[in-house]
Amino acid sequence: MTEADPHTRRVLLAAPRGYCAGVDRAIITVEKALDLYGAPVYVRHEIVHNKYVVDTLRKRGAIFVDEAYEVPEGATVIFSAHGVAPVVHDQAAERSLKTIDATCPLVTKVHKEAVRYAEEDYDILLIGHEGHEEVIGTTGEAPDHITLVDGPKDVPTVEVRDPSKVVWLSQTTLSVDEAMATVGALKEKFPLLQSPPSDDICYATQNRQTAVKQIAADADLIIVVGSKNSSNSVRLVEVGLEAGAGASYLVDGADEIDPAWLEGVRTVGVTSGASVPEVLVDGVLEWLAGHGFDDVRIHTATEETLTFSLPQELRRDMKAAGLKA
Ligand code: SF4
């Protein structure tokens, strides 16, 4: 990284940032469903945790509901990227709803791991945040086998039936370092604790955290663009602070930036959560340029190329309508 010129105000723009493959797929799913079936299309919970995205889709005719029973019988409902418990599929079937499941395939992977370990009669310690939709969905796959561990503070009270048959899984959007601290504490208590076959914290979460870590030491201030209910965005603020940023704030957009944050600041780091459209980052960069921070340097931690195909139910209907998925 280049040395800071004491007379220059600069922006370090982290890459990767913004949309991950799962979010991109979920948003396109709602857009294509609106095109194909016409409004309204019902979406259970926020399709992704971003206010701008949800408001934009609402204007196009998406109706966001909390539960399947709020959807009129026979209507189309899309399940969000965070995943749903099997009981939600049952509720939708009871109401004869047409369902399109936009659960991120990397969340589905964790669901499948939970089912497999439960079938093998393991106790599963799920590291995640209490009340988060993804955790509720994963827990619903095997409620009798899963215990939520919301950080090292929970470890002293965790109990298992057989300490030789216990495995940990995790929410996909945790801080990697914090999750590992929890795993460390669990391993001290249960030395035979098994690990999942591959990382549950997804590539996008990890890459965005790596990028923010790399700019943090040089940043007097880090602005993370993201909504307050976005787990991975909140984690970026925490990771930036832990890695040495002078200060870090989460904003939904430029209108939430407080000019006082720039007092004495020479270098501002900017990044965004996995559910954030780039237009919001552009707004923040414009705002910063208007306050003298017009020297933007991109710091790329790694390149991302992963994409996911649309849910098969939607692809099938698009094909039947002569549309290209
Ligand atoms: S953050 Fe990760 S798990 Fe969540 S939607 Fe994006 S790729 Fe999927």
Automatic annotation (TrEMBL):
Note describing how the cofactor binds: Binds 1 [4Fe-4S] cluster per subunit.
Binding site for [4Fe-4S] cluster: 20, 104, 202
Domain of life: Bacteria
Pfam families: LYTB (PF02401)
Reactions listed under catalytic activity: isopentenyl diphosphate + 2 oxidized [2Fe-2S]-[ferredoxin] + H2O = (2E)-4-hydroxy-3-methylbut-2-enyl diphosphate + 2 reduced [2Fe-2S]-[ferredoxin] + 2 H(+); dimethylallyl diphosphate + 2 oxidized [2Fe-2S]-[ferredoxin] + H2O = (2E)-4-hydroxy-3-methylbut-2-enyl diphosphate + 2 reduced [2Fe-2S]-[ferredoxin] + 2 H(+)
Pathway where this protein functions: Isoprenoid biosynthesis; dimethylallyl diphosphate biosynthesis; dimethylallyl diphosphate from (2E)-4-hydroxy-3-methylbutenyl diphosphate: step 1/1; Isoprenoid biosynthesis; isopentenyl diphosphate biosynthesis via DXP pathway; isopentenyl diphosphate from 1-deoxy-D-xylulose 5-phosphate: step 6/6
GO biological process assignments: dimethylallyl diphosphate biosynthetic process; isopentenyl diphosphate biosynthetic process, methylerythritol 4-phosphate pathway; terpenoid biosynthetic process
Cofactor: [4Fe-4S] cluster
Alphabetized UniProt keyword annotations: 4Fe-4S, Iron, Iron-sulfur, Isoprene biosynthesis, Metal-binding, Oxidoreductase
Any one GO molecular-function label of the UniProt entry: 4 iron, 4 sulfur cluster binding
Active site (record annotation): 134 (proton donor)
Binding residue positions for isopentenyl diphosphate: 49, 82, 132, 230-232, 275
CDD domains: lytB_ispH
InterPro entries: LytB/IspH
Binding site for (2E)-4-hydroxy-3-methylbut-2-enyl diphosphate: 49, 82, 132, 172, 230-232, 275
EC number: 1.17.7.4
Keyword Iron-sulfur attributed: yes
Binding site residues for dimethylallyl diphosphate: 49, 82, 132, 230-232, 275
Alphabetized PANTHER family for the sequence: 4-HYDROXY-3-METHYLBUT-2-ENYL DIPHOSPHATE REDUCTASE
Function: Catalyzes the conversion of 1-hydroxy-2-methyl-2-(E)-butenyl 4-diphosphate (HMBPP) into a mixture of isopentenyl diphosphate (IPP) and dimethylallyl diphosphate (DMAPP). Acts in the terminal step of the DOXP/MEP pathway for isoprenoid precursor biosynthesis.
Family per record: Belongs to the IspH family.
This protein's name: 4-hydroxy-3-methylbut-2-enyl diphosphate reductase
Phylogenetic classification of the source organism: Bacteria, Bacillati, Actinomycetota, Actinomycetes, Kitasatosporales
